Amino acid sequence: MEQAVRTEEQTVLSIEELSNLAAEAGQSAETLMNVVALIAKRFRTDVCSAYLLEPDRANLVLAATVGLRRECIGNLRMAVHEGLTGLVAEQVQPVSVSHVKNHPRFKYFRDSGEDAYQSFLGVPLIDRGILQGVLVVQTIEARVFSSDEIRMLTEAAAQVAPIVSEARTLDRFIAPLQERLWALARNLWWSWDHNSTSVFMDLDPNRWNEVNHNPIALLNGIPLAKLETRATELMLHSRINYAYRRMLEYLENDRTWGTRHAGVLRPHPVAYFSAEFGLHESLPIYSGGLGVLAGDHIKSASDLDIPLIGVGLFYPQGYFRQHLDISGWQREDYLDTDVTQLPMEPAIGKDGRPVVIAIDTRSGRIQAKVWRVKVGRRDLLLLDSDVEGNAPEDRELTSRLYGGDLRIRIRQELLLGVGGLRALKALGITPGVFHLNEGHSAFAVLEAIRMRMEDEGIGFEAAVPRISREVVFTTHTPVPAGHDRFDARLVEEHIGPLREALGLSQESLMGLGRENPSNSDELFCMTVLALRLSRRANAVSALHGEVSRAMWTGLYKGKPEDEIPIGHITNGVHVPSWLAPQMFRLYDRHLGTDWHNRGSEAKIWLGIESVDDGELWETHLNLKSRLIEFVRRRAVDQAERRGESPEVLQRLERVLSPDALTIGFARRFATYKRANLILTDIERLAAMVNDPNRPVQFVFAGKAHPLDEPGKRMLQQIADLMRDTKFRDKFVFVEDYDINVGRHFVQGVDVWLNNPRRPLEASGTSGQKVVLNGGLNLSVLDGWWAEAYDGINGFAIGTGKTHSNMNVHDTRDGEDLLRTLRDQVIPLYYQRDRDGLPRGWIKRMKRTIRTLGWRFNADRMVMDYTSKCYVPAAGGTSSEMRSSS
Question: Structure pTM?
Answer without folding.
Answer: 0.86
